Amino acid sequence: MKLSLLAALAMGLVAAPAIAADSVGAGILKSQCISCHAIVKPDNTSLDRLWERKGPDLYYAGSKFNRPWLEKWLQNPVRIRPAGELYTKHIKGGDKEDVVDESTMASHMKLSKADAEAAAEALMALTGPADLLSKGAFKGEKVSMSMGAMFFNKLRGCAACHQAKPGTGGSSGPELYTAGERLQPDYIYSYIKNPQAIDPHIWMPTLNLAEPDLQRLTGYILQLSASEGK
Amino acid sequence: MKMNFGQRVPAFLQAGLLVASSFVFSGPASADEPYTQGALRNYNTYCVQCHGVNRNGRGINSRDMSVQPRDHSDAKGMGDIPNEEIFHVIKDGGLAVNKSVLMPAWGNVMNDEEIKELVAYLRFVCNCGSGK
Description:
Chain A is mainly alpha-helical. Chain A is built from ten helices and four strands, in the order ααααββααββαααα.
């Protein structure tokens, strides 16, 4: 009897977080995230709205992020966009080139382990519109890092705005040395293919890249995490 | 000249708020205001990342770029480029005119009308005439 009671209790304890996490996580999103992030697809997708929003949209977070990364990052947020969002609001003229105006940059809130796990679970449930991504588009082939770097840096110019290594490259786009850990492969592929289709009016150009380029750059960015970011 | 231009920049950067409130204008370009608020907003969204808050080619991304972005405040350099070529470069990218790949094509982000308005805005920034 005692044992079965303990077992039942144990089962209850195991099951409880899963049930509670749903509501706790959704509650965290509603109470702490929506002042800066859209968790429902906004009706207004104008350029003005892009200027007004305080953080990236999260209504498709479940199609964008990897859950382990979310859980880790929410407990210890590290800046992803060197010049913030929207970068124009956070830069100023410098002695040589423009610099980040640190006085305008706010730190992202930190969550406890339990809250981060609950929020991550709720975020992963937000998959966005069914046609948002080209699902299964990335073929998963390994890419030569030297070839990938040549395309990323020179031939397609990605490094103008993105950092493939900490501190090297552009600052108006998110750093990509943790992108493989952070982002799902099909999201990377789809975003490179047509950024505005996912994030209307975003300041990344749509380059009409051919399929081999999309595969190569997606693979390279995924592999960066393992090779460059540690 | 450059100093004077630099002092005008904060007005640009207020992204139309200051300009719009003083001109109360959002329609097509006129002699009083030779560019549209849409062009200003587009410049501040897409161009500033490389061409800079001072429009001098020293944007936040320019530090590590192998080819430096064009200085839009350079009346001579900009004055040598016809409007058609500026339009072509914005729409189709640097490679389309044998220039750097680092200038991407914006034709999928801005339509032809918006790009035309941006060309007019660039003429205002460089203070270098029509380029004809």
